[in-house]
Amino acid sequence: MECGYLLGCDGAHSVVRHQLGLAYSGETLESNWVLADVKLDGPAASDQIAVVWNPEGILALFPIVGDRFRIIGDVSGTEAADPSLEQVQRLVVQRLGSGFRAHDPIWLSHFRINERKVDRYNVGRVFLAGDAAHIHSPAGGQGMNTGMQDAFNLAWKLALVLQGKAGPQLLETYSPERSGIGDRVLRNAGVLTRVALVRQPLLRRLRNLAFTNLGRSRRFQRRLVEQLCETDLHYRGSALAPVLGRSGGGLRPGERTPDLPCQGPNGQTRLHALLRSGRFVLLSIGAPLPPIETDLAGNWLATASAEPQLGYVAGQTYLIRPDAYLCSCTPSAEQERLVALWDQWR
Hints:
By secondary structure, the chain is of the alpha+beta class. Helix content is 28%, strand content 26%.
């Protein structure tokens, strides 16, 4: 097979990674876990994740659809093998109570937690994404999101390069941006896992007390949702997020931009809808649509204007990447500095 670029999304045992000779550095944790997708009868909330801190080990309950749930439980000290439905039922009764019944299994499996990552996500024109580049504890449920965001980060850059709208140097930002995110995800998931696996009785009581109280905090709940969804991650310090001036108390370069209603070239729309075209958006806040050179419109840049909202300051213009992260911002009178940023990536 011959191709101009190759993206290895072939999992934890990636053939592409092995062929590149990249080390998958990290460790395997000494713990066993069961995973069961089953139908579950009992008083389980269909719109909430439940985590049970049991002296025998943690059990997490994730609603999927209807009465279908995913059960993940720590069974360290037992044989590492796929569980039977009867074993899952005993685990449910032990840690949730006798009012629950697991039945009609869709998937019964077991796993051990690996925390591993490559130190770079590409070699020349060959790139890695998802589990081929990083693998970590399921604590926090970030594996799928992280892999998809790897692919999204590379996709818009590769599209602009293949369309001749950007030079190949744009692709050099993929590895440092996503590797930095991978480091943070591994660290966060690792901390959550080690907290969950605490065995010492006093530490378990302190953990349970802390999480019980924190769980009632709206601020903590919002922070946890942001972490699970990965909307709290950023590319601050990236070559694609230069600081051109003060942000005025609004979004900073490298941060994710919230969606908002705006006036686009063809009428009322929303920011994230404009970004689906794969172009950057030059967004003016509290001022009309910014004028730009006609050869830029429809090429790599779209323009829009919006009213001030949280994160968006009146009198500022924002250059937003196709993946909804802020490239940079300036006072609206200096917006040509934003357009000029693209010159280094052509």
